[in-house]
Amino acid sequence: MAWDFSTEPEFQEKLDWMEVFLKEEILPLEAIAEELTIEQWQQATDPLKEEVKKRDLWACHLDSELGGQGYGQVKLALMHEILGRSPIAPPIFGNSAPDSGNAELLAIGGDAEQKRKWLDPLLAGELRSAFSMTEPEVAGSDPTLIRTQAVLDGDEYVINGHKWYTSNGSVADFLIVMAVTNPDVHPYQGCSMLVVPTDIEGVEIVRDVPNMHHPYKTPFARQPGGHAEIRYNDVRVPKENIIGNPGDGFVLAQKRLGPGRIHHAMRWIGQARRAFDMMCERSLSRFSHGSLLSDKQMIQDFIATTKMEIEATKMLCMYAAWHMDQYGASASRVEIAMIKVYGTKMLFNAIDRSIQVHGALGYTTDLPLEEMYRMARASRLVDGADEVHKVTIARKTLKGYEPVEGWPTEHIPTRRQTAQSKFAHLLETTTANM
Ligand SMILES: Cc1cc2nc3c(=O)[nH]c(=O)nc-3n(C[C@H](O)[C@H](O)[C@H](O)COP(=O)(O)OP(=O)(O)OC[C@H]3O[C@@H](n4cnc5c(N)ncnc54)[C@H](O)[C@@H]3O)c2cc1C
């Protein structure tokens, strides 16, 4: 079995095309994206999306049996590294969060009618979705604390609860809501996911919560990328809107978050490379104290360390992607948790050093670095706080170990004593020859 760090030539061609497309079409559009209305944005991106579709690169995150391209996580990871360079690239490729994860949920757990009604238009880019799980009153890190309830009443579920940080919730056509459907069993068996259209009675979009990404927008900005606070007040949905079986919520959540975390981490690599490229360019261009910044050993340390961290994260990510392709999401929890934690740190360091090398310019909004920096901060919380992932890594890793009575296994006097009896015949010969 070979260790191969290259991809198939046909897929490499697609990646090469993506690189050029990003440089020539997406990055120029990014510079004015904030100024466009939704209609102008559609006008600008519709032809780009068509190009992407023609090359079989649209919404690639699903397996072939689920209606996608079936590229697998390794190839998807390579794609996301390129897409990560620009925040506007994923929607042009039909795989931006949270739509991509929600499509996976519906593809895995949805029935034929749900797929027709929600998944197909989602993949076609005709509908937008959001994932509504975190609640302000209880720790999102411990989803067993979820309070939102969905109670069966005849043929309908009646949902009551309070959520926030439902990304894209204020512009979504439907929400996937995590709620307790059976309070009498452990939450791992008692929570379910339900599809809730946003325009039905009782769905109250309270506000887009102002945050480090959109600090100064009005609370009712209703913007893509906003993080909505939502109240569910006696919201009634048909019981057919439950995804999978009642009680499947956590199993589905695990399936949804696994691949998404690999894609996130690869996009962080793309972001980090962009910050890194800027750092290298600046260090070769800025002159101070008799030489270019690139000649200063401290700046060379920044460059070398950042490069090593980026490549190390990529190796970890590609391994996690390969592991998932081989063994599935639940068997890859440690690998996925490792890239989540390691990737966020790498991203933060890369952007931070790039800002430093740019000096005051790096701190301005004339460069994308300050926005990248604010976004990078969110990555330590999104999809689970780093600390919680570290707990997973440590707990699962410790399962491979046993406690010992008395001295540690590596205790040298004990090992020597054991070795002396095991190799007594050798030692006897040595003594006899002396
Ligand atoms: C930009 C952004 C987008 C988001 N999008 C969505 C979305 O679309 N849908 C959605 O449902 N949610 C979303 N979230 C919410 C996110 O999933 C939660 O913020 C996350 O799960 C943490 O929950 P919490 O904020 O309630 O923090 P808490 O659970 O209150 O945790 C606070 C801190 O406590 C510490 N901590 C918690 N547990 C442990 C532990 N076991 N060991 C050690 N330390 C611990 C950690 O340092 C953690 O950061 C988003 C969040 C952000 C920032």
Task: Characterize the structure shown.
- The chain has helices at residues 9-30, 38-54, 72-83, 89-92, 99-109, 112-123, 187-190, 249-285, 297-327, 333-358, 360-363, 369-379, 386-398, 412-422, 424-433, and strands spanning 129-132, 149-153, 156-167, 174-180, 191-197, 203-208, 227-238, 287-288, 291-292.
- The protein has 434 residues and is of the alpha+beta class.
- The protein has three domains: 9-123, Acyl-CoA dehydrogenase/oxidase, N-terminal domain (Butyryl-Coa Dehydrogenase, subunit A, domain 1), CATH 1.10.540.10; 129-243, Butyryl-CoA Dehydrogenase, subunit A, domain 2, CATH 2.40.110; 250-398, Up-down Bundle (Butyryl-CoA Dehydrogenase, subunit A, domain 3), CATH 1.20.140.
- The strands form three sheets. The protein has a four-stranded antiparallel β-sheet, with no helix packed on it. Strands 1-4-5 form a three-stranded mixed β-sheet.
- A hairpin with a 2-residue loop joins strand 8 and strand 9 (291-292).
- Helix 10 (333-358) packs antiparallel against helix 12 (369-379).
- The radius of gyration is 26 Å and the shape is globular.
- The mean pLDDT is 92.
- The structure holds flavin-adenine dinucleotide.
- Flavin-adenine dinucleotide binds at residues 98, 131-134, 139-141, 165-167, 227, 378, 381-382, 384-385, 387-388, 391.
